[in-house]
Design a protein that fits this description.
The protein is of the alpha/beta class. The protein folds into two domains: about 280 residues, Metallo-dependent phosphatases (Purple Acid Phosphatase, chain A, domain 2), CATH 3.60.21.10; about 120 residues, no CATH class. The protein contains eleven helices and 20 strands. Strand 5, helix 2 and strand 6 form a beta-alpha-beta unit.
């Protein structure tokens, strides 16, 4: 690729490392009939606006998009528009943007366009799309800045390179050897004296060993395979949790910008601000305003009005704008907890999901006092082993609070 002038500022330079935008992921969203879009698109736009604000405030000089920009290979015009807005803000501020394709958008057939191709075709200033393993170089502050990139590696590529046989599932050892060969080649292509980083969309072994993930023949390598000279920082995508996989040079997953399911309920979301020169890189994580996921388990065995009781119990949580999952334990024959009845009682919740667990064992007779809100609370406390010892105190506080509310 040609070297493009983009002078401004002084060394060291700042970059913003982002990955796994998943624009167009519609899980736990609602359909907006007026705009004909899923409301989760607004969450993705909010997070991207936050990151654009960070880029401008921090005066970053380059943004690395390490794959999975879209959730689908066929994004809708509305989803493309969200990404275009983000790119326009960065490009308008003379920030260099390097985007690689992840598994969600890299075409499996050679020659087929990705959903990012049209932006590259439009020659958007400062935007560099990298669809194949290669090095892109620009001039920043009078110095060459090189981005070596490994988009999501495909099985046909490891076979063509001779590291695996046609029809077989490549082993982790084969993938590591193949990726190592790519890293060596790209390192040799970096211009002399350039400030260089490596970006890739793939698994590292430490991620798999620390979690229940199973890559099932997908591209994987040791983190140290990526950590080599002349790269001062390795910007990874594919894993949705921010983590450091190797200390020096730092091999870092930025994590995804928003939550996608309940497995990520307690995981902070954001990106990484990096200060980099030829030898070193310092970095810090910055959070995005990701949608909260709240997971509540309730024992509703024998409750005659489960929706009303569940609403009372849910009030103990901050549910404003949250995606809420209630896992309700009920007995066989109980009135099912109906989300259609519960939803109007929790108007502040963004999205509600109900999961019922049926217990078939014997249970104590249910007291008639649970037909009232205060009675339902007392019944719940009585049946909870951790709360039962404090029932008298909790009920006294509840009655006091109820009387205070009624007095207002």
């Amino acid at each position: 690729m040609p070297i493009v002038a983009a002078k401004r500022g002084a060394l060291p330079i700042k970059i913003l490392h982002i990955a796994d935008l998943h624009i167009g992921d519609r899980r736990y969203g609602r359909f907006d009939p007026v705009r004909s879009v899923n409301t989760r698109l607004d969450d993705q736009r909010l997070c991207l606006n936050s990151l654009a604000d960070t880029a401008l405030k921090e005066r970053v000089r380059a943004v690395i998009l390490a794959g999975d920009i879209y959730h689908s290979r066929t994004p809708t015009p509305a989803e493309e528009d969200v990404f275009a807005e983000f790119i326009a803000r960065l490009s308008g501020a003379n920030i260099e943007i390097f985007a690689i394709t992840g598994n969600h958008e890299r075409p499996s057939n050679p020659g087929r366009a990705s959903p990012l191709t049209h932006i590259d075709t439009l020659r958007i200033p400062n935007f560099h799309l990298i669809n194949e393993p290669s090095v892109a170089t620009v001039i920043i502050d009078g110095e060459p800045f090189a981005v070596a990139a490994i988009p999501w590696p495909l099985r046909r590529e490891i076979v063509a390179a001779g590291f695996a046989q046609e029809g077989e599932t490549p082993s982790p050892v084969a993938w590591d050897a193949y990726i190592a060969s790519l890293v060596r080649r790209l390192a040799a292509e970096v211009p002399p004296d350039a400030i260089a980083i490596l970006t890739a969309h793939l698994w590292t072994v430490d991620v798999v060993t620390d979690s229940p993930f199973d890559p099932r023949g997908e591209p994987i390598c040791r983190a140290e395979t990526l950590a080599r000279s002349p790269f001062s920082y390795i910007a990874l995508g594919h894993i949705h949790k921010h983590r450091l996989s190797w200390p020096s040079p730092p091999v870092v997953y930025s994590g995804s910008i928003d939550r996608t399911d309940f497995s990520e309920a307690r995981i902070a979301k954001g990106a990484v601000v990096v200060e980099i020169d030829r030898q070193t890189a310092s970095w810090r994580f910055v959070e995005t305003p990701a949608r909260r996921f709240v997971d509540i388990e309730m024992n509703l065995e024998g409750f005659p009005q489960p929706a009303e009781s569940a609403a009372i119990m849910a009030r103990n949580y901050d549910l404003e704008g949250a995606i809420l999952r209630i896992t309700a334990t009920q007995a066989k024959g109980d009135t099912p907890l109906d989300g259609r009845r519960l939803r109007p009682k929790l108007p502040e919740v963004f999205f509600l999901r109900i999961v019922r667990k049926i217990e078939s064992g014997e249970r104590e007779p249910f007291s008639a006092r649970a037909f009232t809100p205060m009675g339902a609370l007392e019944e719940y406390i009585s049946r909870d082993k951790t709360l039962a010892p404090f029932k008298d105190r909790l009920m006294k506080l509840a009655r006091s609070l109820s009387e205070e509310v009624r007095g207002k």
